[in-house]
């Protein structure tokens, strides 16, 4: 029977090794991304602006209507 030296747990990688690996892996993942075209970005941005204006207008009108209803109740 041969005796082997029992070694402890493997040394953990250093902070800088893990940091470099993180950035390398992040860069590799970013290369896989299918980025939208300029036209797609413009369309999506226009849609978001439209929805924000629509919801803002709805909330403004709702606030005015509810204010008009509750103002006489509280005497102001």
Helix count?
A: 2
Uncertain spans: none
Q: What overall form do the CA principal axes indicate?
A: elongated
Computed CA radius of gyration, to the nearest angstrom = 30 Å
Computed structural class: mainly alpha
The oligomeric state of the chains shown is single chain
Portion in beta strands: under 5%
Q: Could you tell me the mean pLDDT?
A: 89
User: What fraction, in percent, of the residue positions are helical?
Assistant: over 70%
Our measurement of the CA-to-CA distance between the termini, rounded to an integer number of angstroms, reads 96 Å
Query: What is the H/E string?
Result: HH
How would you characterize the largest beta sheet?
A: none
Counting DSSP E segments of at least 2 residues, the number of strands comes to 0
Task: Walk me through the structure.
By secondary structure, this protein is mostly helical. The protein has a domain at 36-76. Helices cover 72% and strands 0% of the residues. It is built from 2 helices and no strands. The chain has helices at residues 15-32, 38-74. The radius of gyration is 30 Å and the shape is elongated. The mean pLDDT is 89.
């Amino acid at each position: 029977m041969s005796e082997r030296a029992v070694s402890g747990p493997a040394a953990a990688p250093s902070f800088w090794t893990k940091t470099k690996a993180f950035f390398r892996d992040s860069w590799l993942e970013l290369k896989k991304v299918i980025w939208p075209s300029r036209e797609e970005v413009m369309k999506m941005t226009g849609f978001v602006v439209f929805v924000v204006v629509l919801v803002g207008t709805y909330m403004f009108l709702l606030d005015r209507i509810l204010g008009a209803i509750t103002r006489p109740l509280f005497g102001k």
